[in-house]
Write a structure and sequence with these properties.
Chain lengths: ~190, ~300, ~425
């Protein structure tokens, strides 16, 4: 693709991302808000593809679509009133959040425009994802690999602690009842 | 045969669409014959649906509904965009394997939208059944996709094909292959994984659609099956490898073979209930897939 | 136009038929199903999918209202046939095929349906029984009424919806513009302590593989049934099973039909088709030893399938809370798990096919029409707390017959 086409596409995707973000707050339906958010993220992921960061871009698309689908599950679980196509207000504490958003935008945009960026030395690496990874994580790669399962087990343990039904409810006071007493039995029969 | 892929222009995309629809057609015809019907059943069904009028419901979210129904075919086409036909591919993405994964995650959103948009209890239950089932199969699918990538040392589809020139991956990654095929059937809402469209909820996501919308949903399901089979060929059966015939012919032959096997096998298993499938997916299948991945990694390091 | 005719002729080769079984017309329904298999036509699972509406038997007053509502939901081209006796099935299906191809009739049918809906803020129904069949989202309590409408966008093929006004929502409902005039669903605590919407959904009387005339009005949270009431619409005495003159064949036909129903609801289409084929063979007069061999094959296939056992197990114990009074109606009916029930049916079918000529008493088979049946009042407590899939399986695993008292059911059931 030529440079002009690329530039136009890049800025177009940015406009789509911003517009979809606005739609999230203006639309009347939770489901549409969810997928407008997904569309916004997908546009950003596509923009990242233009930076030759293929892996990061595709992963952003993958993760965001999956998250929006999971959000649809939570939407039904936790929203007592589940309005579809009904006018509703998606914002809370208007003044504080407007102030915070405006402030954050000014700081970030100011930083992006006013900070003296260093001049490029040499050429970009052949595999940008690898070089990006090494630049951000570098010598701490082993830590990064271990962090992921640790985070996962933390989430699982937090859930187990937060659930109202403990294993004593499931397995009896002597933890001996088999199969466990669940309102919805699983498929393995644990 | 070891030549690298050639990227063709996007103008060839209609041919890709044609191939996907032809493979979907084949799958539908085979399905009809195996279930005791006639070869012409998909043609008759298509004619019937083209004649039938569309319908909508009160306060249905039509935008999401139609998007969900029509998007399945688009997702299948996007999947196929990174799969080379012999030496030609529409897109030589450096992360083709991840792209395929991203497109099958798109199916999550699409089937849910098809269920939600109809404003009908049965359709909604169907949509949520699909999400419950997807939570069960997605992680095993991701790890099953990682196995060929680790075996080839790259996420590029052409590299995965090139790494199989000595030995096809299906030989030493059988668990990943079986899990992958099962997940392909699952994201195409077919056979034992068709809880989202089951008769016990009046057809689920298919309960309220008629006419062209229904045709798009049905074609989309078979198209996803075809796209998944094509990727299975590329990831596990060496792509265009084979004697005498040119590589694109081999790719097509193998795709149709895998597709036929998937259609024939899935009728032998009754419907799997998503609420019970979740535990099986996480407690049984995921550890098995991780073990397979460990074996592959050890082999790659030792080699 | 040539293309239209061509499309029409192809389309009619594979029409989808929605079969509505009126209580007391089981034999007619079986004949219609045989007719469909013979023509390679397909049984529809919902009105949206159907071209032909086949009403088996003569519908009573309430059932007629239901059938009219279902007819209204079918998109064109559509036709309706009423089949009263098994002998009239081929002629009825032929007439249906002809009617589907009659473009002028279909066009006039289509133009007569051009109308749509509006909000009816002032319309409130007197609260008749809810005769809705298929899926409708409804708000708390109130029944809806079809409204005439002025919709600017005359999209051809729009169907009427049922509008409800949740009277509990009072002023809130009046202030906000409700989509389509449907009120919001109320929330309520569900079994996990989440506040989820409460939906009132009537299941039946028109659902695939569903007892004829049964309306199970469920209160759903998510897809879990928290409360239910059951009744039979226009009940009649007897099921109207086909009489072949040989008691063994009657039992064989009935059992194969039950097996086919349960297998179809369990989602095993090919095994259900096999069971239906066995039933049709028995009705056609195929020699009993051949039927016995077929039953043996089906039994082997079904019992060997561990996935089927896995899917069906554990539903019946879940319906009884610990310490529940075991003399409650219906509790002894479901003391037997569904896989065992299925196996029992197959064994009875095999015994019937293998029985020597004469009475069935020698082989211990019970009266055909009432085995496994429970009265509607016994159904709600069996299904409360289960999700929709489990509810469908339990209903498919038992028969629901109107003219049984609870004690009689207990005496007859296994």
């Amino acid at each position: 693709m030529t440079g002009v086409v690329q530039t136009v596409l890049f800025w177009g995707l940015g406009a789509v991302a911003v517009a979809a973000g606005v739609v999230v707050f203006r639309t009347d339906s939770m489901a549409r808000a969810t997928y407008a958010l997904a569309a916004s993220f997908v546009a950003v992921g596509a923009q990242v593809l233009f930076l030759h960061l293929d892996y990061v871009g595709v992963i952003v698309v993958l993760m965001m679509v999956m998250e929006m689908a999971v959000m649809a599950v939570y939407m039904v679980m936790f929203m007592g009133m589940n309005p579809a196509l009904m006018p509703m207000s998606m914002v809370h504490s208007r003044k504080t959040s407007l102030g915070g958003a405006a402030g954050a935008f000014i700081v970030l945009a100011g930083g992006a425009l006013l900070v003296p960026w260093p001049a490029r030395r040499g050429a970009p690496a052949v595999d940008l994802t690898v070089s990006l990874g090494q630049a951000t994580m570098g010598s701490k790669m082993l830590v990064m690999l271990v962090v992921s399962p640790v985070l996962f087990s933390t989430i699982v343990s937090a859930l187990v602690l937060a659930l109202p039904r403990s294993r004593y409810d499931r397995l009896g006071d002597d933890l001996r009842r088999r199969p466990a007493e669940d309102p919805q039995p699983g498929g393995v029969g644990r | 045969m070891a030549a690298d892929v050639v990227t063709v222009s996007v103008a060839w995309a209609p041919l890709a669409l044609l191939l996907v629809v032809a493979a979907a057609w084949w799958a539908a015809c085979l399905d009809a014959v195996v279930s005791g019907g006639r070869w012409g059943a998909p043609a008759a069904e298509a004619a019937r649906l083209l004649r039938q009028r569309r319908r909508t419901l009160l306060a249905a979210d039509r935008l999401l509904w139609r998007l969900g129904g029509g998007g399945l075919l688009v997702a299948a086409l996007l999947m196929v965009a990174v799969i080379p036909l012999g030496r030609w591919t529409l897109s030589d993405l450096g992360v083709g394997v991840v792209w395929f994964n991203a497109m099958d995650v798109l199916v999550w959103a699409l089937v849910w939208m098809a269920g939600w948009g109809a404003n009908s209890t049965h359709a909604l239950v169907g949509g949520y059944r699909f999400l419950a089932q997807a939570l069960a199969y997605e992680l095993p699918l991701m790890f099953a996709l990682t196995a060929p990538a680790v075996g080839a040392g790259s996420l590029r589809v052409a590299d995965v094909i090139a790494a199989q020139h000595g030995l096809w991956f299906v030989v030493w990654m059988p668990v990943a292959f079986v899990v992958f095929c099962a997940c392909v059937v699952a994201f195409s809402v077919q056979g034992p994984f068709a809880a989202a469209a089951a008769a016990d909820i009046g057809g689920g996501v298919l309960a309220e659609v008629s006419g062209v919308d229904r045709l798009l949903l049905l074609v989309g399901r078979y198209a996803l099956l075809a796209a998944g089979s094509a990727f299975a060929v590329v990831a596990f059966f060496g792509g265009g490898d084979g004697p005498w015939l040119p590589d694109w012919v081999w790719t097509l032959v193998k795709t149709f073979a895998v597709l036929s096997v998937l259609v024939l096998v899935r009728r032998r298993v009754p419907l799997l209930r998503p609420d019970r499938l979740v535990e099986v997916g996480w407690v049984l299948v995921l550890p098995l897939t991780l073990l397979q991945l460990l074996v592959v990694s050890v082999v790659v390091v030792v080699r | 136009m040539g293309l239209n005719e061509l499309l029409g002729r192809w389309a009619v080769r594979r029409a989808h038929v929605l079969v509505i079984e009126v209580p007391g017309a089981a034999g007619v329904r079986m004949a219609v199903e045989r007719g469909l298999t013979a023509r390679s036509w397909v049984q529809a699972t919902s009105p949206a999918e159907a071209d032909v509406l086949a009403v088996c038997g003569s519908a009573g007053p309430r059932m007629s209202v239901v059938i009219a509502a279902v007819w209204d939901q079918m998109p064109g081209p559509r036709t309706r046939v009423d089949v009263v006796g098994s002998a009239g099935v081929p002629a009825a299906l032929n007439a249906a095929a002809v009617a589907l191809l009659d473009s002028d009739a279909q066009r006039s049918d289509a133009t007569s349906r051009l109308g749509s809906w509006t909000d009816t803020d002032d319309e409130r129904d007197a609260g008749d029984e809810n005769d809705d069949d298929h899926q409708r989202d409804e708000s708390n309590g109130n029944d809806g009424n079809d409204g005439e409408a002025s919709h600017g966008d005359m999209d051809i093929g729009e169907d009427h919806g049922h509008m409800d006004m949740g009277e509990d929502h009072g002023d809130m409902a009046m202030d906000m513009p409700m989509p389509g005039g449907i009120g919001l669903a109320e929330g309520g605590q569900d079994r996990d302590g989440l506040e989820m919407d409460v939906l009132h959904v009537p299941l039946g009387p028109v659902l695939p593989h569903w007892p004829p005339g049964l309306v199970l009005t469920c209160t759903l949270q998510g897809d879990v049934v928290v409360q239910a009431t059951a009744e039979i619409v226009d009940p009649v005495a007897g099921r109207g099973l086909p009489v072949t003159g040989d008691a063994r064949r009657d039992v064989l036909v009935d059992r194969c039909d039950d097996v086919a129903r349960l297998l179809a609801v369990a989602g095993w289409g090919s095994a259900a088709a096999q069971a239906r084929q066995l039933r049709d063979d028995a009705l056609d007069g195929v020699a009993l030893p051949v039927c016995a061999a077929g039953v043996a094959r089906l039994t082997r296939r079904v019992t060997r399938s561990r996935v089927l056992g896995w899917s069906l197990r554990g539903l019946c114990t879940a319906t009884r809370a610990p310490g529940q009074d075991s003399s409650a109606a219906g509790s002894d009916v479901l003391a037997v798990e569904l896989p065992d029930r299925l196996r029992g049916w197959l064994e009875e079918a095999a015994a019937a096919a293998a029985a020597p000529t004469g009475s069935l008493a020698g082989v211990g088979l019970t009266d055909v029409a009432f085995t496994d049946a429970i009265p509607p009042v016994a159904l709600p407590q069996l299904v409360t707390g289960l999700d929709l899939a489990a509810v469908r399986l339990i209903v498919a695993g038992t028969g629901v017959v109107a003219d049984l008292t609870a004690s009689a059911a207990g005496a007859r059931a296994r």
